[in-house]
Each structure stands twice: as structure tokens, then as C-alpha cells.
Specification:
Layout lengths: L12 H18 L6 H31 L2 H24 L7 E3 L2 E5 H22 L3 H4 L23 E4 L10 H6 L3 E7 L2 E7 L7 E12 L2 H14 L2 H13 L15 H4 L3 H16 L6 H9 L3 H14 L1
Antiparallel strand pairs: 1-2, 3-6, 4-5, 4-6
Helix pairs in contact: 2-3, 2-10, 3-4, 3-7, 3-10, 4-7, 7-10
Length: about 325
């Protein structure tokens, strides 16, 4: 069912936005005056930068929400966790090991805080993602906009179901054997008499056994592996959005962008790292999740996006396959 009589015209929104942008661009260039060109170019550049950083990246926030609320909630919590972890690591260990500031224009930012915040974020992301994956209203995708929330029911996708995952054996080639043996759930696989077709777990002191590779199997929820990638980005890249905001405030001689939240500034001060994080979440989802996972829930979701004629055509093609 259509959400609105004008819903079918929503596909024209990108074209309308582009026309407004190009119209503003033409008017700005056409209205330049001799003696004020440097100032007007400065304003134009700032406008384009703000549009790219805010409006451009906010578009991907909506995509993340429709893909499942977990792809919106988890990144926000990871950035917040990194901010809090870096703060406490900085005030407790700051400049006790590394005297140099992390960035020159913000002397309060320390390497200890940066590293400590990253460790806390990765650990939190590993367990928080598993916890959020238990709730269907977090994992179910949707394509409807309603005024009042309704219960979401769907078949759980594979990445939210506990499964046994095997780590690639090539990863262990990067670490010394003493470190590998200290890891839990790691099994050394040996070949019998050098025959790679006859593989068995190594037995200490057994003759004719030669090391072949290492195996590590963990019973986890696959979303936890994706959470590690998101956590690393929230720790290594997203903070530089905050550093950019700090540089802007220092350049204009202000402490905060506003004073809505006492002691923290305005809403912009709270979202300086969130924009690039939401963009990476969308890129990660479409690169590693959307393409690699196929489930009944996802097929039904895509089916509901089709028009009546396309649905009929799809069912006819499906009937021919049977």
C-alpha cells in the first residue's frame, strides 16, 4: 500500500535537490563582485564543505536505520564509548608514557587517551553487538515510516544467529608460536609423515607428525566480527572528526559551538564524530553484509519494495524455475 498519494513522485527528490544546488551555485558565481571575490569564495567553500559533512553524510543515517536499527544504534554507542574511554584513559594515564600531544592544536588530546579509548571500544563492541543481536526490533529491516512504533517481526538473518566460525589459518603466520599456543581454542594440526591428505591434531611427542597449520574455532554471533571492524574505525578514524571540530573552534576562538548542554556545548559538539561513522557503517554494510548474506527475511524485504507489476513478473519467473 502507498504511504501517500505523492509517494510515487519521491524518486524525483534527488533531481530536485540537484537543481536547487546547481541553481544556488550559478547565482553565487553570477553575483560575485570585484573587491569581494575572496570573501565570497571563502563563503562558497564553507557552504560546500558543510553540505558534504552534514547533509551529505546524514543521508546514509536513514539507510542504516532501514537496514536494521542495530546498524544505527551500535555505531553511535561505539563512538560514545570511545569518547568516554579516551577521556578516562587520558585523565588517568595522560602523558605518563608519551609526552607528545596527539594533535598540536588540541593539547588536551593524549596518545594514552587515544589508545585506551580504542581498547575499551573494541572490547565493548564485541559484547555489545552480541547483546543487541538478541532483539528483533534491532535486527529486522523495514521499509515503512509510521507515526507510532509497531512490533517488528522477521526471520533472523544469519549474521545474528550464533554459529561456529573458523579463523583463517594464514592469520597465525603473523605471530610467534609461543603466542599462538597461549590463545584459547587454538589447535595445532599436523600431517602424518608429510602427507598433507592425512591431517590430525598434533600429539606431543608423537613420531612422524609434522606441523601443517593452526586452527581456531569460536562459537560466536557473526555480527561480533563486524563489530570489531566498526570498533576499530570508531577508535582510529572517527575521532579525527572531533579533531576537525576542535581545529575549527580554535581557529575562530570559541570553546563550544553552543551552550544547550551544560559543560558539553551544543548538539554539534556531540555529533562531530558521528557523521563519518555513519558513512563508514553504510559502506561496511553494503560491502561485507548486504552482498554476502542471503536469507528469506532479506528476500521478503526486497520483494515488498517491488511494484505490483514487478511482483507479478517475479512470481512468474519463480514458477518457471520450479
Amino acid at each position: 500500500p502507498k504511504l501517500h498519494d505523492l509517494f510515487e513522485y519521491a524518486q524525483l527528490a534527488p533531481l530536485l535537490s540537484f537543481i536547487l544546488y546547481t541553481g544556488t551555485f550559478v547565482l553565487t558565481i553570477g553575483s560575485m563582485q570585484t573587491g569581494h571575490i575572496r570573501f565570497q569564495l571563502n563563503q562558497l567553500c564553507w557552504t560546500i564543505v558543510v553540505l558534504c559533512i552534514t547533509v551529505g553524510q546524514l543521508k546514509w543515517v536513514m539507510h542504516n536505520i532501514y537496514n536494521g536499527l542495530i546498524w544505527f544504534t551500535l555505531p553511535i554507542l561505539l563512538v560514545t564509548c570511545n569518547d568516554v574511554g579516551a577521556y578516562f584513559a587520558g585523565i588517568t594515564c595522560g602523558r605518563k608514557f608519551i609526552q607528545r600531544s596527539l594533535v598540536s592544536f588540541s593539547p588536551n588530546k593524549t596518545w594514552e587517551g587515544f589508545i585506551g579509548g580504542g581498547v575499551v571500544t573494541v572490547i565493548t563492541g564485541w559484547y555489545l553487538s552480541r547483546f543487541l543481536a538478541r532483539f528483533s526490533w534491532m535486527t529486522c529491516p523495514t521499509n515503512r515510516v509510521t507515526l507510532f512504533p509497531t512490533k517488528l517481526d522477521c526471520e533472523v538473518e544469519n549474521i545474528f544467529v550464533e554459529a561456529t566460525s573458523h579463523f583463517p589459518s594464514q592469520v597465525f603466520a603473523l605471530f610467534p608460536r609461543a603466542v599462538i599456543r597461549s590463545l584459547p581454542n587454538v589447535v595445532e594440526i599436523c600431517s602424518m609423515g608429510g602427507d598433507s591428505a592425512a591431517l590430525t591434531p598434533c600429539i606431543s611427542g608423537a613420531p612422524h607428525q609434522r606441523h601443517h597449520h593452526w586452527e581456531m574455532a569460536l562459537t560466536i554471533v557473526p555480527i561480533q566480527l563486524h563489530a570489531i571492524s566498526l570498533s576499530l574505525f570508531a577508535s582510529l578514524v572517527a575521532p579525527f572528526g572531533g579533531f576537525l571540530a576542535s581545529a575549527i573552534k580554535r581557529a575562530y576562538g570559541i570553546k563550544d559551538f553552543d551552550s544547550i548542554i551544560p559543560g558539553h556545548g551544543g548538539l554539534t559538539d556531540r555529533f562531530d564524530c558521528q557523521f563519518i561513522m555513519s558513512l563508514y557503517t553504510w559502506v561496511h554494510y553494503n560491502t561485507f553484509v548486504k552482498i554476502t548474506t542471503v536469507s528469506v527475511a532479506k528476500l521478503l524485504y526486497m520483494y515488498r519494495l517491488l511494484g505490483e507489476d514487478e511482483r507479478q513478473q517475479f512470481l512468474e519467473k519463480l514458477a518457471k524455475m520450479e
